[in-house]
Hints:
By secondary structure, this protein is mainly alpha-helical. It has helices at residues 3-26, 31-53, 55-61, 66-147, 151-179, 184-207, 211-224, 231-245, 248-261, 268-281, 285-298, 303-315. Residues 180-185 have low confidence and may be disordered.
Amino acid sequence: xSVKSIKSIFFNLCSVICVLSSFLIAGCVSTExxxxxxxxxxxxxxxxxxxxxxxxxxxxxxxxxxxxxxKKLKELEAAQKATAGTVSDLLVNVQSLTSEFRILxxxxxxxxxxxxxxxxxxxxxxxxxxxxxxxxxxxxxxLKKKLSEPAAEGDDTKKKEDKKTEETEKAKEDIKExxxxxxxxxxxxxxxxxxxxxxxxxxxxxxxxxxxxxxxRFMSVLSDYPENDYSDNARFWIAESxxxxxxxxxxxxxxxxxFKKNPESDKVPGALLKQGLSFYALKDKxxxxxxxxxxxxxxxxxxxxxxxxxxxxxxxxxxxxx
Length: 322
């Protein structure tokens, strides 16, 4: 192989690299063009191998130029590797752009769907508004007709107004008569409101996790308003505040106070359950069991009775089979 042919191959390699570089700089290489580039690169690799095989004969014929040729070949190999890496990166970028294009297409379709749906809703609302406007126009026409009726209608209206005035005056007289009566009923009603407000303030303190403050407020309700509509509830929550603090002995006594003062209260089933559990907490399982059994006997269908049965099943060991 002559020096001229080697130079020709060298220039061909340079031309291919320049073409590849120009495509990469332009940034618009298609997948087909990338495939063509790879094919040309493979052809160049084959040419480089052929050049290496004949390098020994070239060295014999042109001993002074071998180092220069080897240098050029290394430069060509380096350029070829850089170009191959750039082509791979370009393929990855093309795939990434394709994926992003599909995502954007899906978002566009979704936006178009919601836009069409919104347009349909607007059209429906428009029809409803038109119907409302028509209805209002008809109502206005009816009012105009009524206003244009004969004066006799006005006389009837005046009679009705006079009757209403007479009824109003009579109502005023009745109110005056009522106001002369003793104000005992009003005082009782005001007292009920005060009791309720005091009770709700105490209950709110209990719900917010302040049992000691709640207990003091409930006790004030009982002392300031003896045996009111909230007495049984107040006694129950006093006991509950002790139970919540872990003062089980005080809780037992407070529940007992409810049983004595308000035996018919709807709080009794819950109080029996908690009193029994208080004895369990004090390691007195026998007394606790007796109270739970009493609860089941008196209120068998209550939720508290169901919980009591569950507690007894856990604490009473099963009988041994013979």
